[in-house]
Amino acid sequence: MCGIVGYIGKREAYAVLIKGLERLEYRGYDSAGIALLDKGVFSVYKKKGKVAELKNFIEQQGKKFPPLLYKERGQEVRSGIAHTRWATHGAPSDKNAHPQLSNSGEIAIVHNGIIENYLSIKEMLMKKGYKFKSDTDTEVLANLIEDIKKNAKVSIDEAVRLALLEVVGAYAILVLSKDEPDTIVVAKIGSPAVIGVGDNEFFVASDATPIIEYTDKVIYLEDREMAMIKGGALVIKTIDNETRNPYIQKTKMKIEELEKGGFPHFMLKEIFEQPRSIGDSMRGRINANEGTVKLGGIEKDKEKLLDAKRIIILACGTSFHAGLEAKYFFEELTKVPTVVEYASEFRYRNPVIYENDLVIAISQSGETADTLAAVKLAKEKGATIFGICNVVGSSISRIAHAGLYTHAGPEIGVASTKAFTAQIAVLMLMCLFIASEKKLLNKKKMIAILTELENIPKKVEQAFLAEAAIKKVAKKFKNTENFIYLGRGYGFPLALEGALKLKEISYIHAEGYASGEMKHGPIALVDDNMPVLFIANKGSSYEKIISNMMEVKARNGTIIAIITKGDTRAKKIADYSIEIPETSDIMLAFTASIPLQLLAYHIASLRGCGIDKPRNLAKSVTVE
Ligand code: M6R
Asked: Where is each SIS domain found (predicted)?
C-alpha cells in the first residue's frame, strides 16, 4: 500500500517524480505529495486526493511552479522524493500526506509501511520537546532521524541506520536531508524498493514501473538493506552495517505495457489481453504434440513437488479464488490432498505443517503482506515453498524455494483479471506436471489435455463475442442493490470470484455461494427483485445446476445464466443468458471468467464508478 518514488541526478526532478506517482497510483490514491530539494532548499507540495489533484495544485502555482521557480533562482532541481498514499495512521488529509518533515524542516521522508512502535518513540520525542503536526507514524520516524543526527553528529545515512535499529514494523523509506543535498537514502523491511541505475542518475520506487522509461538496470533491495546514493555513487549495506555488493539485473518490462492502449480503463484492456497473457504464461512450458510439460523454475526442486503428501495453497482475494479452483483439478488429476487457506487466517493460527507438505503461495504482486507473512511462517515450520507471482523480483518470489512466474505483464487495474487466468494456467501446468511425472495420466490423455490448453487463448477470444449480450444485462441490472452468484464444482470458485469483481468495482452487494448450499440459507433472499447469476455450463454438475435454477425460478428470482454455446435447455430456463464456448470442466475458469469480469466492468461503468481505482482499495496490500 502506498507508492514511493525518488530521483537524484541530472534531470529536472519534478517531471520524473510526478510521472512516477502516476505509475504507482494503483498502490494507493487518497493523498499524494512531493518534496524537491535543490541547493539546501526544500519545496514541499501535498494534497488530499488523487495524483491528478496534486499535479493540478502544483502546476497552478504560477511563478512558483517548480520548474519555473528554480529556473528563476538559477537552480536546477536534481533530487526529490514523492508519495501516493493509502491511509493507515491518520485519515487522508493534506497534513497526513507524505513527505513528512522533521521539526526543524531539515529532513523529509516518504514511507510505505507501518512503524508499529511509533507511539513509544513519539512519547520519548515529545518529552524532548518535539511537536507533531500530523497523525502519522512517518512523522515520528522523521523526527527520530533528526534527533539522532543532531545528537550523534552523524551523516544522514548513519542517522537513518541508527533510527531503523530502534524501529519495529515494515517499511520502505526514502529520506532527504537539507544539509546533504547530494544524498538520498533508501531502506526497506517488508515493503518493496527497487533502485534504477542510470548514467550518473538514480531512481528509486516501490516497483520498476516509474523507472523503465529511463533505464532497464535495476536493483531489488533485500529486507534490512539500505542504499546510500551519494555524489553519483551507490553503496548498499544492511542496517546492521554489513556492506553488500549491489546485484544489478535487467528488467524486461516494456513501457507499452503500462499504457491504456486506447481502452478507457486498464481493467478493460487487461480483460481483453487474456488470450495473450494466458498464452504467454504457457509459452515454452508445454509441448502438446509430445504431451510434455517443462517447468524450469521448479525443475531443481521437483522431488519436493512429487513427494508432497499434501499441498497447502496460501493466498488472498482473487489469488485465493485461483487457488480454490486449482484445488479441484489438483485433487482430480494428482490425487494429492489440497487445502486452500486465506493467508490472513493461516498466519494467525498455529497451523500444523508436516515434513512432506508443499506450500504454494499465489500472489499477483508478490508483496501482499498477509501472504508474505504466512509464507514466512510456513517456511519457519519447515515447509517447502513454491511461489506463483506475476511481479518479477517481488518479495514472495524471492523468499520461495522455487516458483513460476505468470507472464501476464503488469496488471494496473486494481481489480485482478488477467492475473487470475494466468494463475490458473500456471497452476494447471504444475498439476499436469505432477500427474504426468507420477504416471497418473498416460501420454494420450496428456496430449489431449495439452491440446485443449493450447487452444484456450482462441476460446477466450470467442468468449468476448458475448460482450453485446453482457452489456444488455449490465444495463438492466445497473441499479440493483444485491446479487447472488452460484456455481457448483469448478463453477463454485468462479462464483466467488465473479461476486468479488462486482462488489469491488461497482459497490453492489454480491454474494458468491456453492449452488448446493443455496437451500441452506441464501434461498431465503430470493424474491422477484433478486438477480441470481448461475454458472451453468454443460459440465459434470450441469443437471444439478439446472435443478437449482428451477428452484430459483419457482420463487420468482431472475436468472442470469452463463451457459455453454448452443445449450437451449438452460437458455429456456434463464431470463438472460450469456454464452461461452464449450470446454472440459478443468478449463472452465478461462472462458467463464470473461463474462464475469465484463459484467462487473460494464455495470461499474454505467454506474460511473472509478473502475481502475475503486474506493478504499489499493492494488498491492502491503499492510496486515
Ligand atoms: O497481489 P495479490 O495477488 O497477492 O493480491 C491479493 C488480493 O489483494 C487481490 O487479489 C484483490 O483481491 C484484488 N483486488 C481482487 O480483484
From this structure: 301-440, 473-614
